[in-house]
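Onboarding guide, step 5: your first structure request.
Type a short instruction followed by the sequence, for example:

Predict the 3D structure of this protein.
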Amino acid sequence: MGKGGSLSDNVIKNIILSYTYVSIWIFLSFTVIVYNKYILDKKFYNWPFPISLTMIHMSFCASLAFLLIKLFKCVEPVSMSRDLYLSSVVPIGALYSLSLWLSNSAYIYLSVSFIQMLKALMPVAVYSIGVLFKKESFKTDTMINMVSISFGVAIAAYGEARFDTWGVMLQLGAVAFEATRLVMIQILLTSKGITLNPITSLYYVAPCCLVFLLVPWIFVEYPVLKQTSSFEFDFLIFGTNSFCAFALNLAVFLLVGKTSALTMNVAGVVKDWLLIAFSWSVIKDTVTPINLFGYGLAFLGVAYYNHAKLQALKAKEAEKKLAQADVEADRLLEEKQGEGNDK
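The system replies with structure tokens like these:
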């Protein structure tokens, strides 16, 4: 390759892998969101029990992860002490259960397009929490970029035709818990001296989520479900929905482990565009010119972020080559000095 700012094969490979992980996550996230909306919305399948749906997902994920590890032995379990489990897995499980509960609940009250606009406010939250936990370094230009993305999303949300205060509160709460969880995943994967692959992550986290969700389910949804005698469990609907959720969980852990929580949330804006187009053309949600203008501003922020990330990769690669060259030069110098002493 040419000199002067060219990318090495290693950097190009990392870029391709990063965008591959992002693409997989976008596809699975799109599928799960639309599927969950179909199940929970009264206009479609009409099963408005978000805690129950999330518990079905977690039960499926925990069971499948258990079979893959214990029965089929596809992966080796991770040795984890009780203290490490309580300090690392339990907080992530609690945050994850709250995030899923609130975000699924929002689909009952808000349109898919508006929910995606609110979700796109997450980069500022993720970056701020990342700086707080020292997982991201504070940079003024990055913060300005995050604010510009959020500002564009705020404009897009300004013209929302179907506004529900309770639904907005649920979604904003989900954003707060999700942002914290994403940063905590990085801490669990990198700062505790252990390595969890996607399957072992679900093996430990999913049962914890199920336990946390059980408490609100007993008081909120179980009494209603107990009185609903007409409901019959549809194994095809809930089975395929749970499988999509399992695949999405694998993609989330993989994406965050290989890139960063901030990357996933900025890339999520692309997914939001696809969902807004689907919501407008298929579900027939109202999308106004103000919505589109605001999201155009958000995309400018995403483009700047991607450019900054690429430049950072190039600088890191150049620094690495320079350090290797210095080590090699020191080694040659020591060899020559050794030869001179021998003489």
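Each response can be followed by summary notes, for example: The first helix runs from residue 9 to 40.
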